[in-house]
Amino acid sequence: MPVLPLHRITGLLTSDPRLRDCMRELRSAVRESNGDVMMDSELFRKCVGSNIVLLTQAFRKKFIIPDFETFVANINQIYHKVADYIPHLAKFSPDLWGVSLCTVDGQRYSMGDTRVPFCLQSCVKPLEYAIAVHEAGTERVHRYVGKEPSGLKFNKLSLDEEDKPHNPMVNAGAIVISSLIKVNVMFQSEKETGDRNYAIGYYLKEKKCFPPGADMIDALDFYFQLCSIEVTCESGSVMAATLANGGICPITGERVLSTEAVRNTLSLMHSCGMYDFSGQFAFHVGLPAKSGVSGAVLLVVPNIMGVMCWSPPLDKVGNSVRGIHFCQELVSVFNFHNYDNLRHFMKKLDPRRQSDDERNKSVVNLMFAAYSGDVSALRRFALSSMNMELKDYDSRTALHVAAAEGHVDVVLFLTEVCKVNPFVKDRWGNIPLDDAVQFGHENVVKILQQYHHLYSAPESMPRMEDNQKLETMKGVA
């Protein structure tokens, strides 16, 4: 996998489509200088001009995983631990084993056999379901695959009481889903081992499960072709990351799937994506995933990253032995389980947290902006998702400092836009209102007294959604 010299720190690859202009300028400069290029300020501006925002985020550690180097070191340990896992593998070929990950910011890392192509097999089922919902909507899709998909139905047929396929994650449901997807060309594919699926197809046709006008043989041909699509761990991780990113591809910025399609797909993957192991996987790993008999496991950590594991040796229910164990180890090290409490469960690592140095810089910058009355700086911090309730060594917040200095504009921004907690006590037991009173800032006192009343009665102060808050801040920028 091609990498930047500092790829372990940033997670960005030279193959990232977002860096296309930057890399083109660099290669052009190298050609023109016969390989002896000097990076001066003019060439630097020329190269990074179109990518300055992305590169600034990367090197200021503003991505979802700020300390990417430490994170991948931990991932490497898990990978090598799983590589030698369990005598059970002795009966299989232990040679092929790959893991790739891609974060919602496009940070990427790979270990092992990540460029070897393999068939998606059943890992294609959540993807085709997501495409169907994206194109036709939830209501139309579940008109043909049942209105309430059940995680309790794992056999290959599993029809509901209305003779509709109950579960898009098993063969019957996936075959019907194939008939709902708009395609221009139907492909001929391998069918030697498809007798059972043909039997399922004819049974579904008898029960009138297909939408009007759909041809059962075409749907089966398309289903076989979908299962035979070849991917690598590297490309598969980007697919998984697109699901983690709400349907937007992290490395192109394009919306591929609707948020409705992603929500439905992740719900199904979480409840019934791992064959008969789905309940145990949901309990122990607590993340949406889908496996295939090729040895693939597509794992989604919502809002953080996607992972594709691949190792052909399978357990008795058809899941990759190494893939399952990697997922279990991942959530034992990091607090990625859906029900890990981020505030009170401190035994696991949280790669989203900034290092102590970064946090200290944030506190200093936040407090200095509040002290100097710099609303513009505070607005930038809020837009970059900084916690506006950070405390200094005296447990004082930015609102404490602004109230003590009498900066009305800052107090209004922190209360009306950021909705910070006005009742935080510093090491002496004072809240921001106490500071405003002590230093005689009457205007601030009035603002905080009114805000206290509203903050204590949330039903009288409707809170803005995050996107509304963002638009409000942008509007006054």
Briefly summarize what is shown:
This protein is of the alpha+beta class. The protein is built from 21 helices and seven strands. The chain has three domains: 7-59, Recoverin, domain 1 (Orthogonal Bundle), CATH 1.10.238.210; 115-333, DD-peptidase/beta-lactamase superfamily (Beta-lactamase, 3-Layer(aba) Sandwich), CATH 3.40.710.10; 356-475, Alpha Horseshoe (Serine Threonine Protein Phosphatase 5, Tetratricopeptide repeat), CATH 1.25.40.20.
Record keyword descriptors for this entry.
single chain; 477 residues; alpha+beta; Recoverin, domain 1; Beta-lactamase; Serine Threonine Protein Phosphatase 5, Tetratricopeptide repeat; 3 domains; five-stranded antiparallel beta sheet; two-stranded antiparallel ribbon; 21 helices; 47% helix; disordered C terminus
